[in-house]
Amino acid sequence: MKSEIIAVCPGSFDPITVGHLDIIRRASQMFQKVVVVVMTNNSKTPSFSVEERMEMIRKTAADIPNVEVDAYGGLLADYTRKRGAKAIIKGLRAMSDFEYEFQMALTNKKLNPEAETVFLTTSSEYMYLSSSMVKLIGSMGGNIQEFVPAAIHEDIQRRLSGKDA
Ligand code: PNS
After folding, report:
1. pTM of the model
2. In what order do the strands lie in the sheet with 3-11?
3. Which of 23, 56, 75, 129 to mutate to test the pocket of ligand 1 (most atoms within 8 A of CB)?
């Protein structure tokens, strides 16, 4: 049985990878609703616009009925409060993720004690995967087919190789 809790799955999703999709899908089996939110206020300069990132998530998660896609430019703690979300879903790939994620979890808990961070262990086949790696490979002409969801693979490959400029 699914928890009645609304969960938020935040990230840059620049672009969404098969690793992200795996976490979203698994969270959707645990919680009543999963809001995948593109956070727009971090210091990284994105390769894809907020609308493009949201559209890519919508396309890839189209078969998951309890997933909603949104974007937010403020603090994650304020967003969870606004949505009444009691869980923040994060994927953990390796120990190297842990320190930063632990710090963010404690900060978010301080800012909104109502929301708990829930870490899901990344499936072993995606442990090495990141959006940065996808962008690097794609921009150097490599094939990113197995790293990004099939529904958006061609769009991403074209953009990263500069062929749609
Ligand atoms: O996909 P990413 O880039 O690893 O996601 C990081 C993200 C966007 C989830 C994180 O930077 C974030 O939550 N940013 C919003 C600002 C915020 O609330 N930061 C945490 C408290 S300092």
Report:
1. 0.95
2. 67-72, 31-39, 3-11, 87-92, 116-121
3. 75
Q: DSSP string of 50-99?
A: HHHHHHHHHHHTTT-TTEEEEEESS-HHHHHHHHT--EEEEEE-SHHHHH
Which atom of ligand 1 is nearest to 131's Cα?
1
For residue 56 and ligand 1, the question of a CB distance below 6 A is answered with no
Q: Is 139 a catalytic residue?
A: no
Taking residues 90-95, report their average pLDDT: 91
Q: Is 43 in the pocket of ligand 1 (CB under 6 A)?
A: no
Give the DSSP letter string of 99-117.
Answer: HHHHHHHHHHHHH-TT-EE
Give the separation between CA 139 and CA 62, rounded to whole angstroms.
27
23-62 residue pLDDT tens:
999 999 999 999 999 999 877 889 999 999 999 999 999 9
